[in-house]
Specification:
Number of strands: 18
Shape: globular
Order of helices and strands: HHEHHEHEHEEHEEEHEHEEEEEEEHEE
Strand content: 15-25%
Helix content: 40-55%
Length: 409
Amino acid sequence: MPDYFKGGGIMNRTIRIVLYVLSILTVAGVFAAFIFSGGKNTAETSSTVMQETENVSKLEENIISTEEPEETENTKETENTEGVEETENTEQEEHAAAEKETTLIFTGDVLFANAFKAGYDAGGMNGVVAEDLLQELKEADILMINNEFPFSDRGEAMADKQFVFRCEPSYVKALTEMGVDIVSLANNHTLDYGKDALRDTFATLDEAGILYGGAGDTVERAQQIQIIEANGKKFGFLAVSRVVPTADWKVENSAPGLFSCYDETRLLDLIEEGKKQCDFLTVFPHWGTEYSEAPDENQKQIAQKCMEAGADLIVGSHTHCLEGIEYINGKPVFYSLGNFIFGQSIEQSAAVEVTVKEDGTASYRLLPVYAAGGVTQNMDEAAAGKLFSYMQQISFNAAVDEKGNITED
């Protein structure tokens, strides 16, 4: 299109004025010719006047019609641009809201022993945890496990103990590859090979940049709440054990050692103090009776006291099987998550995924898993449905739906 047809409002008015003047001049010229000719050829002259007037009108219409599509096209382009901008703004807002949510995953007992080493040596982490499950673990903002062994090549196995565990420090890379941020060392195996092996464990985890709770070189370190900041919130983790083989495992009796809660006084004080430092506080106790799906009276009493002291969540370990879920003061207690990486075979188990929103409210979902051939993996839909129904049956006042979502019943 020539440039002189693109002017907008001012150009339109100018063209119309010019055409109007031309129209008047044309008509005037025709009439003048008619007068000088003495009135001859009247029909021909009238026809000429009408034709010239029509030509001018058509020219004006052509100019206007040529400009109007340009204006319509611009209008559509503006509307489309506004629509894209609105969509982009909505997506940005949704993305920003999602970023402000924090996802935590907790698993049960993890043991790096014979089955683990065989799988890892043969296929890396995919020889231990299936790829899709591994991806879920790595995508969590915070991942916490129960580390049921020391990282060390040193020490002597504890005498008269049926099962003793340890793993070479080099395998700590597997925790990093899983995306582990923090481990509990408050359990009945971290001192299987003595105090030097436990010191090696501290050093190994420190070097890998993985936090640990529930054990330390001093009473203060063993009882220290570990805090991780994510998405503008402080998440606290307090690990403790009520399963200690001998009294000299307790850090207050001999260091390094474990934080225990046979007397809950210090634990409850720490929860009250920790709640002032954290937006969301998780207590991670090692407790209960092995292979019992029902929590014992000690577990239930400690859970009640911890929630009253201000805990937001309790996730238990030690029993090597799933135990039920109970809401206390509107907050959940997962009495035990069973095993997660532990030997060749796990019939059924689960991790728990916690989503904490910007306003501090939290939602909970079970991630149903099993292990075959030493590889922990997600259950298929049918097996998951059965596990959710089972968890519903053994829980107290908690409902588990077909997707594994957990709510107070």
